[in-house]
Amino acid sequence: MKKAIIGGTGVYDLYPNCYSKTINTKYGEVVVDIVNINGEEIVFLARHGKGHTVPPHLINYRANLKALEMLGIKYIYATAAVGSCNENYQPGDVVILTDFIDFTKNRTLTFYEGGEEGVVHTNMDNPYCPNLINKFYEASREVGLKVKGEAIYICTEGPRFETKAEIKMYKKLGGDVVGMTNVPEVVLAKELGMCYSAIGIITNWCTGINATDIVLHDIQGSMNKNKEKIMETFLKVFLEKKLDQDSCKCKDSRIKL
């Protein structure tokens, strides 16, 4: 198994015909679903757990990524439900994440904490794999999925939504969308030498950007609008496109001292 999909809010129910596997890592236990499609096994990991039971600030990100490494995963596509602070990106739009700004506060951000693990720095020139991004663009055109554009992702601690003042600041810093889960996920994938790309599904306007309140049914509706096409695009890349880690620098991101 080399390919995995990490699903965020609203994408857990697309593959009923699969089997579950439990992986015991040094950071905790992780349950994944494995789908066999035309002889190719694709791993699916529900970021918040089955039934969306784990809030963003308590997700065991290190266990999740370590479990995927133990399964031999090299390529990861992820979905992320995000709010928009860019008036050009509306609820229901699909964007490709290209960079992030981290405003989390209490999360363990690395596998490398000194001692036996050593001191390791990680290159963040391209946090999201350019090769997977290009393949997603190509496949999205083939399946008829409209990608609205690219976005800089602001990651907040959650689980609360952001204040008007915070969103105003994030927007001034260059953020396009705001979410609660992509950091440290993208960082840990990079530390493990994986190719990782995340697709943002805009579910709502950020606080203060539009007069519309953030409500659950709007979030679910925005997710439902495009989630099947996004998954179809992921699978088209994984099953039909040539992937090669020599065409990017993801596997060489770690700098050990």
Could you describe the 3D structure shown?
The protein is α/β, with parallel strands linked by helices and 257 residues long. The chain has a single domain (3-256), classed as Rossmann fold. Helix content is 26%, strand content 30%. It has helices at residues 61-70, 130-143, 164-172, 182-191, 216-240; strands at residues 3-7, 19-25, 28-37, 40-46, 75-84, 94-103, 120-122, 149-156, 177-179, 195-205, 254-256. The strands form two sheets. The chain has a five-stranded mixed beta barrel with strand order 5-9-8-6-10. Strands 7-11 form a two-stranded antiparallel sheet. Helix 2 (130-143) crosses helix 5 (216-240). The longest helix has 25 residues, at 216-240.
Short description:
The protein has 257 residues and is α/β, with parallel strands linked by helices.
- What would the average pLDDT be, to the nearest integer? 90
Number of domains: 1
User: N-to-C terminal Cα separation, in Å?
Assistant: 31 Å
Strand content: 25-35%
